[in-house]
Design goal:
Number of strands: 15
Distance between the termini: 45 Å
């Protein structure tokens, strides 16, 4: 039906793509610049493919590599992105950001998971718009350590779980708000009820 570019000549990578109930398209990834390194990119196109807005996030004002790796759309058509964002020159945090459908920032949450390097690679939403963010703890996504964070719709952290021997590859949330986690090495399946 249509083919569009991101409206940003410095786009670095596309990491996530979702379509909402009204056929609006959202994407996330990164944009690059010599002065600032890479920054989160979140953009929206309407059902006709017309560009509506783009938003950027840079954890620190120095040249680093911040990348939005995944996004999800909740039941109120808010878009939530997660990824990896430098806290300083050497340390990386998980940064999760929520925008409404007009691109207005709702909140930004960062977590270091008590580790030097972390990155969010998966984000899911349950029937109550609670968020589940999973990713790596350590050097990169292939590290055998990972985490699961749960936030409510206001961005308040409800629960955190670290997996010391499992790299989380996928998560799913059922209609009762129970989160199932799958990974490799020592594979765990855990449940995170709505009211832990």
């Amino acid at each position: 039906k249509w083919l569009k570019d991101s409206k940003d000549a410095n786009i670095g990578s596309l990491r996530g793509l979702k379509v909402d109930e009204s056929d609006n398209t959202y994407l996330c990834g990164s944009v690059n610049s010599v002065a600032r390194g890479s920054r989160y990119l979140t953009a929206k196109f309407n059902d006709k493919g017309n560009y509506e807005w783009s938003r950027y996030y840079d954890g620190q004002p120095f040249a680093t590599n911040d990348v939005a790796n995944a996004l999800v759309i909740d039941h109120n058509q808010n878009v939530i992105v997660t990824g990896e964002s430098f806290k300083n020159i050497t340390n990386i945090d998980v940064a999760t950001i929520k925008y409404n459908s007009n691109g207005v920032l709702q909140w930004t949450k960062r977590s270091d998971n008590d580790s030097i390097n972390n990155g969010g690679y998966i984000v899911k939403v349950d029937v109550n718009d609670n968020l589940y963010v999973a990713g790596y703890v350590g050097n990169d996504w292939y590290s055998p350590k990972s985490f699961l964070l749960k936030y409510n719709s206001n961005g308040n952290q409800i629960k955190k779980r670290n997996f010391l021997q499992t790299a989380v590859i996928s998560i799913a949330v059922n209609s009762q708000g129970i989160c199932y986690v799958g990974g490799y090495k020592h594979c765990d399946f855990i449940t995170c009820p709505n009211n832990p």
